[in-house]
Automatic annotation (TrEMBL):
InterPro entries tied to this protein: DUF1329
Keyword annotations: Signal
Keyword Oxidoreductase: no
Signal peptide: 1-23
Span list, region Disordered: 40-62
Pfam families, per database record: DUF1329
Claim: Signal is one of the keywords in the record: yes
Top-level taxon of origin: Bacteria
Protein known as: DUF1329 domain-containing protein
Length: 452
């Protein structure tokens, strides 16, 4: 970690521990977004060893959708090396504690194939412009659901973060397009290694926070999703709608259960509550590594570090069968791509008076995209119990990268949940150019579309 970011981390710790509202960046700091920092706040320069390249901001060709399948821009590359249980000590400082634990749990089959690093993160110029405005205007304020951004819109809220909570909000409000659609299968891997398809779902997603030119209409709802379950047969017709708000006490979710033929508002779509979308295997705040309420935790920047993380994972779209992605009790290592990148390391520790099944957590946020790519969750005894992860992919038409494959390894029970299989579908994750109607994300529409 270079001296500049050591100072940032130290300053953040002092300010946050004092309980003060986070200060905005100074104009001098914000000016770095056009010089030494990228428009999103990462370091433009590569590392001194040359194993992390400089950021250029150039588009990455080859990730377009052709015949219903998204391409892999780095399909011809070969791994530089592989990290296994046998040589883990050699790369220990670059591997997260969570994936060290997975490698030790499955020493004969789990490995990390490491490829050349590519900094593919880009966004439209208007998103960069809004990010620059946010740098000097946005701040964290106390809401009913915890600290929330104020004065931010249409870009990364805190490109020069001064607290762990700001980093977490950069992930929640990361650029991933305005509107998108996808059709995926999701699997549970049982403790004895069986892969069970527990959901085939269609998603429509919208981020009102990124509606271009509509800052005056933004009322705090930053992410909307509607999910329709198409399989297996026992779950056909289930549906979920979620509307996340900056003040998370105002976030709402509804579920339609065909057996009851009615829409129910979920009483607590938050935190360590199991989510119906994953058949209860994942909690709400484990979706995409972290989603939802920040207020149950104190967030602290540990620092910035070079680590091996899942990245540019378009290769996993290549297999024609879901089963080609199956490994023994984990994803097939052949289908994953690992690269060396700089990440923000952030700890989230349960606040006094709050309750959660994972009172201690460590998150790893990619510096270029603000995607949370890995985490470790610890129980009350301090034991590492769960390892969330996500795989960012290049999405050409959206000028973005997004997590289309994500999951959770349960180190205690031995089961795994993984979402985002497109291999037997011809409807890949895609950016929708015309925004969805807001009414699509309402319980009335869900009730009208109910089946069975």
């Amino acid at each position: 970690m270079n001296l500049t970011y050591q100072r940032i981390a130290a300053t953040a710790a002092l300010v946050f521990s004092a309980g003060s509202a986070m200060a905005t960046a100074t104009p001098e700091e914000a000016a770095q977004l056009k010089t030494t920092l990228t428009p999103f706040g990462s370091e433009r320069a590569g590392n001194k060893e040359g194993t992390i390249p400089a950021w250029t901001g150039a588009p990455t060709p080859g990730a377009d959708i052709v015949n219903g399948r998204r391409g892999d821009p780095f399909a011809n590359e070969k791994p530089l090396y592989s990290v296994t249980a046998k040589n883990l000590d050699q790369y220990a400082d670059k591997v997260s504690e969570g994936f060290k634990a997975i490698m030790k749990k499955y020493p004969a089959s789990f490995r990390m194939d490491v490829y050349p690093s590519h900094r593919t993160a880009i966004a439209p110029q208007w998103v960069y412009d809004n990010t620059a405005k946010n740098a000097v205007n946005a701040k964290l304020v106390e809401g009913a659901g915890g600290q929330m951004p104020e004065g931010a819109y249409g870009g990364i809220p805190f490109p020069i973060p001064k607290s762990g909570a700001e980093v977490a909000w950069n992930h929640l409000l990361r650029w991933r397009g305005v509107s998108s659609s996808n059709h995926v299968r999701n699997y549970q891997v049982t403790a004895d290694g069986q892969w069970l398809m527990i959901g085939e779902s269609h998603f429509d997603i919208q981020m009102p926070y990124y509606m271009q030119g509509e800052a005056d209409k933004f009322k705090g709802e930053y992410w909307m999703v509607t999910t329709k379950t198409l399989g297996p047969a026992i779950r056909v017709g289930e549906a979920i709608i979620g509307r996340l708000t900056l003040d998370d006490d105002k976030s709402q979710s509804w579920v339609y259960l065909p057996g009851q033929r009615r829409v129910r508002k979920l009483p607590n779509p938050c935190c360590d509550t199991p989510t119906p979308f994953t058949a209860g295997i994942s909690t709400f705040d484990e979706i995409n590594v972290f989603t939802g309420r920040t207020g149950r935790f104190d967030w602290k920047i540990v620092g910035k570090k070079e680590m091996l993380i899942p990245y540019n994972g378009n290769r996993y779209f290549t297999p024609l069968k879901d089963s080609d992605m199956f490994g023994p009790k984990h994803l097939n290592p052949d289908s994953l791509r690992w690269e060396l990148h700089r990440v923000w390391v952030v700890d989230a520790t349960l606040r006094n008076g709050q309750r959660h099944t994972s009172p201690k957590n460590r998150y790893y946020f990619d510096e270029d995209t603000w995607n949370a790519v890995m985490a470790e969750r610890y129980d009350a005894s301090g034991a590492l119990t769960r390892v969330p992860f996500a795989v960012p992919v290049v999405i050409t038409e959206g000028q973005t990268t997004e997590q289309t494959l994500w999951g959770i390894y349960d180190l205690v029970g031995g089961s795994t949940f993984i979402a985002g299989f497109y291999n037997e579908r011809t409807t890949p994750y895609k950016i929708v150019q015309k925004p969805w109607k807001e009414s699509l994300f309402t319980p009335d529409v869900m009730a009208g579309e109910g089946v069975r």
